[in-house]
Amino acid sequence: MKRRFISGLIAGAVILGPGAALAAHGKPGLWTITSTMQMANAPKMPPGMAEMMKKRGMNVPMAGQPFTSQMCMTAEEVNADKPPRMTSREINCDTKILSQSASSMKSETVCHGVMDGVGHSEINWTGNEHYMGSYNFKGTMHGQPNEMSTTYKGDWISADCGAVKPFSAKAMAH
Asked: d(Cα 67, Cα 117) in Å, to the nearest integer?
């Protein structure tokens, strides 16, 4: 049960906030990302999971409440012309860009695995140090019907990531 809940959190995290600098719109370095999620049929957190997450320094996400995390973006990620493919033992998501301009992008993400369905995202940039957007997913999670909507924003903090390690889609693979 714990593994199933964690895989759901990971699946949600993978699609909640696009990389801080998709399609060369950002800056390398440390970003703060805040997202708020609403999810129908959300899985219940197993007993003790919240305490374990807190001990590991993780914020416990609550539906409808803002969740803030930090992400380190490398120059390679910033200069990529499309979102990274997210694949692990339990998740297989592929994103394609539907439309793009100098200040916005719309994309579609198709996922299979613990999350099976289609999501649509819209992101708007204000310069190369701030973005905001939304994501809506409809499909199943662990075989149960699910709909999820998320709003998010990202703010560039510093060129120095400090202790925050760069995100890598390869790190998702088990």
From this structure: 23
